[in-house]
C-alpha cells in the first residue's frame, strides 16, 4: 500500500518568506508526527496529532511554526518568516493508535521528508 | 528517560549474519524496545519492536535478554541495502515519551561486498 507522502521533496526559499510543507499519512493512521533533522543530527520532535487535535506541541521551536491537520488525514506544517536556522529536513510520520493512549507499541512510518533550504 | 547504548560502527560481509547489540540497563517494565534504521538521504524506517519475547519479521529478528537490560537486532543475511545507521530506542507504552522517537547516535553498519 501507499506509504507516507510528503511534498515538496525539496524547497529553497529566501529568508523571511513563509513556507508550507505537506504530509499525507498512511490511510487509517490516526496519529501523525512532525520531526526535523538537521545535517548530521538526530531527530527533533516538533508536534504530535491524534486525529485533528495536537495533544503535544511542545517541540515547536517558536511561534513562527504552526501545524494543522484536517479530516484526520493531511497535515501541513507552516513556517512563517523563515530564518536560516530553519534549514533542515522536515520529516512526517504516521502510526496507528490502539486507543486509551496506548501508542508506544505502534511503529511510526516515515516519509522521505522535505529538504528545506533557506538562503 | 531510559537510555540506550550502541556501538558507533560495525562492519559485515555481504550475505553474512549481523548482530547489532544494544544495552538498556535502566529499562522500565512498560518500555517497548524499538529498532529503526536510516539509509542516506531517506527518512527513518521501522525495523522491529518487542517487549519481552524474541520477535521475528520479514526484515530481522530481535533477541531480548531475559532481564531486558540488553537486546540484539539480527539481520540474517546482510545485503548492500542494509548499510544504514541503526537506532535502538525505548518507548513507554503510553504517556509522555510514548509517541516521541528520540534517536541517539546509533550504529553505522557498513556492508562489504
Give structural notes.
- The complex is a heterodimer of chains A (119) and B (113).
- Chain A has 119 residues and is mainly β.
- Helices cover 0% and strands 48% of the residues of chain A.
- Chain A has no helices and 11 strands.
- In chain A, strands 2, 4, 5, 6, 9, 10 and 11 form a 7-stranded mixed beta sheet that branches.
- In chain A, a hairpin with a 5-residue loop joins strand 7 and strand 8 (75-79).
- Chain B is mainly β.
- Chain B contains no helices and 9 strands.
- Chain B has strands at 9-13, 18-23, 31-38, 45-50, 55-56, 61-64, 70-75, 84-92, 107-112.
- In chain B, the strands form 2 sheets. Chain B has a 5-stranded mixed beta sheet with strand order 1-9-8-3-4, with no helix packed on it. In chain B, strands 2-7-6-5 form a 4-stranded antiparallel beta sheet, with no helix packed on it.
Interface with most residues: A-B, 25 and 26 residues
**Mean pLDDT of chain B, nearest integer?**
93
Which percent band covers the strand fraction of chain A? over 45%
How large is the radius of gyration of chain A?
Answer: 14 Å
Mean pLDDT of chain A: 92
Biggest pleated-sheet summary of chain B: 5 strands, mixed
Category by helix and strand content of chain A? mainly beta
Order of helices and strands of chain B: EEEEEEEEE
Shape of chain B: globular
Helix and strand pattern of chain A? EEEEEEEEEEE
Count of strand segments of chain B: 9
- Low-pLDDT parts of chain B are none
What is the radius of gyration of chain B computed over CA atoms, rounded to a whole number of angstroms?
A: 13 Å
- Span from first to last CA of chain B? 39 Å
Derived from helix and strand composition plus strand pairing, the structural class of chain B reads mainly beta
Assembly form of the protein: heterodimer
